[in-house]
Please model this.
Amino acid sequence: MQVLSSRNVRLLSRGRNEVFAGRSGAQRPGGDPRTRSLTCPPLLSATRRGLPKEKMSENGIMSRAKVLTIDTMNPTVKKVEYAVRGPIVQRAVELERELSEGMKKPFAEVIKANIGDAHAMGQQPITFFRQVLALCSYPELLSDSTFPEDAKSRACRILQSCGGNSMGSYSASQGIDSVRQDVARYIERRDGGVACDPDNIYLTTGASDGIVTMLKLLVCGEGTTRTGVMIPIPQYPLYSAALAELGAVQINYFLNEEKCWSLDITELQRAVNEARQYCNPRALCIINPGNPTGQVQSRQCIEDVIRFAAKERLFLMADEVYQDNVYAEGCQFHSFKKVLFEMGPEYAETVELASFHSTSKCYMGECGFRGGYMEIINMDDEVKDQLTKLLSVRLCPPVPGQALMDLVVNPPQPGEPSYGSFIKERTATLSALAEKAKLTEQVLNTVQGISCNPVQGAMYSFPRITIPEKAVKEATETGQQPDMFYCMKMLEETGICLVPGSGFGQKDGTYHFRMTILPPTDKLKILLNKVKEFHQRFTQQYS
Amino acid sequence: VPLWGITLQLQRCARDITNMSQQAVNGVSHRGRVLTLDSMNPNVKRVEYAVRGPIVQRAVQIEKELKEGAKKPFTEVIKANIGDAHAMGQKPITFFRQVLALCSYPALLEDSKFPEDAKQRARRILEACGGHSIGAYSASQGIECIRQDVARYIEKRDGGIPSNPDNIYLSTGASDAIVTILKLLVCGEGRDRTGVMISIPQYPLYSAALADLGAVQINYYLDEDNCWSLNITELRRALSAAREHCNPRVLCIINPGNPTGQVQSRQCIEDVIRFAKEEHLFLMADEVYQDNVYAEGCQFHSFKKVLFEMGPEYSNTVEMASFHSTSKCYMGECGFRGGYMEVINLDPEVKAQLIKLVSVRLCPPVPGQALLDLVVNPPQPDEPSYATFMKERTAVLSALAEKARLTEQIFNTVPGITCNPVQGAMYTFPRITLPQKAIDKAKELGLVPDMFYCMRLLDEEGICLVPGSGFGQREGTYHFRMTILPPTEKLKVVLQKIREFQLRFTQEFS
Model:
């Protein structure tokens, strides 16, 4: 374990802090080193009582040390990493600024394919949704004859469940009652009639909020009893970031790239067995359809996972935000809830499950509204009370996001005036995505040194790239991950912003990047071609 | 035992039965669930948030019972527990909602019913959004042009003191930003654990966040006898007592005060800043009620402005974060969860960490960001919506000022209630005298005396207040918090009902 970061060594060599030096040798006893690095922050950052003042009187001149510095801040926050908006995106923003200031670059625009941000990529909002939101924002429009009746009736219903009939009032912390009821009915329809209780629905600020809240409830214990949470590798880095911040132990299970990123129970068993040596594994996170890996889990696999969770006594967290994004033939989305209930009361009445959904993905792609919900199954009543209390501190999820969630779960029905155009818009988006999923796989697989699994679902491709030994060496010399080096070079040369695989986790010695398939087809073609050319150039340069 | 006491007991019973039957079914074990009260995050258990606590849950239940036709001594529940202006009937500012409608459904930009200035604002906001849609993620720190508008607004407010848009972070309501800054500040173990000074009475977001983060809460008491003013001697006392058991690093100030409604004088702010510098504390200034100042002779002074007027010795060193929101003031748009913070003298490395931390949650809700933009950049005198905007804004603020006076006046006529002037914010926090017999009765029921008082008030009059114990108060004193937001006529009824209840309650227990 790295006890002293280079920065801390620098500070010590300046003799800036003796207390620090004395502390740096002190480590907590016992435990697997992996545990220690994850659960016990090194004591380097312990605060130095009264020190800054003394220092100031000593050297008089220099600006006084700040209260809050990198050495005296929350050590768990320092461990947080979030590659999807990491250094490469900051560089992309900088490049955009340079371009707008007229600087010459080998490209005319930066294409941010780092994130699943549909509208930013030109996808148009669903007309019906936005009509209702406009009506809710400015109810005067309810008397405007240009708005369809079904939009008006939805808006009236939402406004009637808001305090003072205004979206500007706080809602219940769990979310607006009528919206939770609509969510419950939506889940029942989706799951072929399996019952859903609105009391188990919690509206959230995007799915991220729900996921972090559930993890927060689960984390406890110290040392070898510290809560461990199993996450797939590659993963969506919200999970690793939240676990770092909560000081929980991250337990990696690897998806099988050779078998289209499928999940293997043997691998889950290996991971949990090893983890039991140094922590208390209590939760298992599944992302289906997969982010960044795009696989869609089979029904059989979900059953196996549920059986495994029951046997190993794990709380299941099912991240199902891409549930409408399934493209590959023969693939189908199965919700964990549905499979759980089809497995009979032995499972349906015992396995604890939270499943997450959002307004940000699927065909609507309304990321900016931060709408979402979670459904919890078999949660202890007392814990439920604690959950409600915890949510109440943040008052409520944004009400426009709640309204949007309501429309997603209760869209225009056959017979309503907006049904035709709604279905047309929805289908256009989803079939374009299916086409782009195929296209991406096809084109990338023609490039030597890139191999790409089918994008069965979600919004990303996560191809494996071969990086020549020379490039790996140069990257290592400059202190960069080889795939970060690769992606940075691609950004500088082509203006394409991708996220290196190291930000999601990957098997040692393999390299990947994540690219969203969201750009409009024509643009996507150009983008894929540029990636292809870059890869060939890069390979040539370093071989 | 009162009705709600029975209800609580019944709920517990039902739960026990469920648990028992579950045990019987599984037979095997009460290994029970993975996640139970005993195996959950202990910090979360310590979190308390009275503003939406048991009394509000009871209020919701009563509402449901009323709807189902249950007979009560009242026909509606009045929720005076929270500063939720629109729920109390306040109307949104027309201009703000026009722009939000335009942003939601840009086809309306062709509609001649909308004024040009609303369209122009909407276009500007949309142009700053990815793909010209408020459905795109924004930068995690917030949309750039909105941060620029916020910075200009702060400059104007503070008489020209510069504000750098890079120091502005948009947030999901002010709560989000407050928790984020506290999160950055918490570290150390045992005696080295970060201590955070908060006022008592406080807004319970602070105690809740500190419990959640496992930080040490350091109480400093506001002086009720001097209109809830802040006293440097008391700060000093609290700090030196705390140094025995933790590492005090942060001082939180709420100005205008919540729940106490005081407005800090310029002198007092200067003293606080001097104290923070001397004692090496990070300042957090919760200024979400900055437009809510009613009392004559009172004026809002931002910590930022005072800090900079104290000269470079202070303005170059004292670290500070100040918070604002779209939820209060004249707009009261709580549901949109808009807000911002400005950070001053924050270490650049810490700033990088802050940006990383906020990026994990992707971005604050974009409609809330848009709304904040309108709050900091409202219609100008030469624009078509200016007159209506000013009319609406002034109407809200002067009604609030009237209600603040009215509340103080009426309460102070009630024997057993004493009430400081509501100089600002949206609440009154009067002190109530509870007869010893009532205190004994409360203890018998396992309730804090002012919770007992408020529960009775809710059951008998349908008025939902928050007991002072949820905010903290000096031992042996009792209070409640009530918002002054109900429309004037309704407020009068509320005040009258509380008056009658107080008289009845005192008689019953004496």
Observations:
- Chain A touches chain B through 106 residues (CB under 8 Å).
- Confidence is low (pLDDT under 50) at residues 1-62 of chain A.
- The two ends of chain A are 34 Å apart (CA to CA).
- The first strand of chain A starts at residue 111 and ends at 112.
